[in-house]
Amino acid sequence: MAEYLSPGIYVEEFDSGIKAMEGVGTSTAGFVGMAQKGPVNGLPVLITSMADYQRRFGGYLSERMYGNKRFLPYAVEQFFNNGGSSCYVMRVCEKDGEGNYVGGEAKGSMPASGKSPFLELKASNPGAWGNGIRAKLSLMAKSRTRVEKKTEENAGTGENAGKEENAETRENTGTEDVSKTNAADTKTITYKLQDASALQMGDMVCLQLAGKKSPVFFGVVHGISGEDVTLKYLGEGVKEWKFLEGSTEPEKPKDPKEEDPKTPEENPKDPKEEDPKDPKEEDPRTPEENPKDPREEDPKTPEEDPKEEDPKEEDPNKTTGDSPQVFLYLAEWVLTIQDDTASEQYESISFNPDRSNYADNVLEKSQIVRITTHGENMTAGMMDGLLETEEMAITISLSGGSDGTVSRDIDPSVYKGEDGAPDRRTGLTAFKTLSDVSIMAIPGITDKTVQSDLVSHCEGMGNRFAILDMPLDHKEVSDLQEFRENVDTSYGAMYHPWLQCYDALAKRSVFLPPSGAMAGIYGRTDHSRGVHKAPANEVLRNCTGLSVNYNEAEQGKLNPKGINLIRALPGQGIRVWGARTCSSDGNWKYINVRRLFIFIEESIRANTNWAVFEPNDEMLWSRVEGTIRVFLTTQWRNGALAGSTVDEAFFINIGKSTMTEDDILNGRLICVIGVAPVRPAEFVVFRITQKMEGAQ
To answer: Is residue 393 packed enough to be buried (19+ CB in 10 Å), middle (13-18) or exposed (0-12)?
Structure first.
């Protein structure tokens, strides 16, 4: 209760007697089957178009490799062609005797050679599709700062390296000197930077001498003290950068035009071989003084005689000019991943586990690859020379993926799946987490155990309807009747024959199971008319023929058994010509009746949870009754319920007539609802007689 302590005006809100109800969706389908790629466990994937399916699960499957298990992509295509709007797809994959998925995942690493890569990439799921993945790492140097001088260098020791680097992770063969390798890995160099504020421990950095052709050397921040930054894992190339004592720059290459460009230390020649010319002259080695004397030292500069060019002049680690400089950058990366149907790009990723943009964390959302960074495998100079000079990038190609060998036999456990944590469920059990799926199908799989599992799933969930296929080779009426006897449920329907459609992969017409197209027709009918309309007398799109053409007499034998035929009617195209469930109970004979009750039950369930823990008294009973009455009245006006008045269409009882004192004391609110569903006019009968003209 509100407290009224201070004089004034108080405005308060309160709930009215009823709450509005909104009907749940009924056209979302769920498909289970084999695919070229895609996740095999976790939540099913929402698909909104065939192009979306191809990005997530790949293209069509070949008959040679997958046989009668190849129909999932075709069913999804038929679903969207016939009016479906959205569906969920769950890929299944066979396992070997040890419980591992058949086939393998494509892998790649950086460096590509060696037993202990720093970076490993793996396709997100098994299959040969992963062999087409290309990952491009482009260097994105950030936070540039100038290196002022080198303040300290620690050469490292093999003994220390063994302690720091966990030598067990290194596999050395032959005569490799382990102590030298470990010593290089523990070597550290400390530089004084102009600004070290952007760096933190564990960052990968790159060093480069000013100049477009200068190579890049990588290291990892090992320590920070003010502007002094200690780096490890630096390559041997940085040894050529000699900082002059007391200087803030590395040693500058001498200009050959200077008076005495070479010191004895740089060019330790015998004094007897020195030029006998007057040393007071500005440049005693010019070609004008003695151009032909072979005893003289070659006076030509590299520009004049490129054949005897000094190799030091082409050293990309040095630049000519007034002030060569060394710059340090924070090394972050742009990762571009592509396969045959999709691409992803991630900017500013880091290999520092303490950074928020750590590569392993950022790529958790990738649908193409999984990445693993092994910082413990980093070695001195590992990254040096890997990048292409022009683009400053490295391309990693994945390989080793395999589809394995798909058996011709059906393993029911593959489709039923394994239960467990929500992110580990497979097959049909993965759909337990979803509440918005109302149509289920396993296209082309006519195994009795698999279909029984599908029906049991729909009956157990109580909010979805199964569409079942019949075997392609069953053509005789007796064979179809015998197959139909395996199922008795109001939560499923069977359709036959198979549809003749064009196969874009085989470049010819093939026969496909009708379940995918029927799921699309269910959705199309729900959108255009409502769930109360029977999904029959509807044209199948993108269908050019049938595996078998049945006549009226044959349908007269199959329709009472609950086998819904698809027929080619002259002048009317190929149409669905049946609307019965697989139930032997006459009350649930029609598909639209069962699906209407699923719709009403789920709508009430989803829109009345506000009543939970409310006081169980007459006020609550009145509000619940009013809420449901408004909803059912709307359905009656839309044509979903039979009757000329509301009282004929439905009734609602709630109160002491439906609850005992024990029910109320135990917190139970019981509401009894009765509805009169409309049933399809399956047999339209016109009785005609002659009207005799009366005698005059």
So the answer is: middle
